[in-house]
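How it folds:
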Amino acid sequence: MRLEEIINKYRQNLNDTDMVIWKYILQHRAAARHISIHELARACAVSSTTIVRFAQKLGFDGFGELKAVLKMETPAPTDYSKDVLNDLGTFYDTTWHKLITRNYDEASRLMHESNRIFAFASGFVQENVVQELKRLFFYDGVLIYNVQGRMEMESIMRTLTPDDLFIFVSLSGETSSAVESARELRLRDVPIISITQLHDNTLASLSTTNLYVSPALFQLYSADEERTPYKSMMPYFMLIELWYVKYRLYLQEQKDKAENR
């Protein structure tokens, strides 16, 4: 599990001082892999004990274990060679192997046990992801209702119960309408699955369980062209397809367990 996932998991337990420490680590990630606890404490204007407590709030025994996780993380590449097709293929392969090793049981359990399932997309690509999600799970008779707009969200919100499920698909995890709705859903004890980019974000911290993706930028234009790099959103669709397959395997596993009792 990457550190961003751990931060999102325990974010409700972190105070302002903890977030200062996390912000420093996030902005100086390469240096933080080798920094001492005393150097980090000085940089954040806190005590070494505060650094230890921060690490323990994230489930680590101490700062040494947190730093070990940082060292094990592979930095995301920022520059690509001119062989973009080869880079794209490598990116797909790496993404696939990362996604296939993740555990989807909690998300699958929520999908299977919920009375009603709703989904909200925060953008155009995310809307396409929701449509693909609906198409795949329809094969198993799972109906997902796509919520369109604030008024529809407010209307549906009044009827939701803890037996329902809400899925948010977002890139940043900071879209105001999604975050506000997620906060309201938490007050109502409605389970939430968020699908966001892998980084510290509010939506993930409010969710019951999270599914993460890591889009990547590819430079398709020469240096003298002032063009925005191409961003591959394929990880979203890889994730959805893998989740569906894992969902089918989860159902079969539950069936086998029931038959062997």
Summary: Residues 234-259 form the longest helix (26 residues). DSSP finds 13 helices and seven strands in the chain.
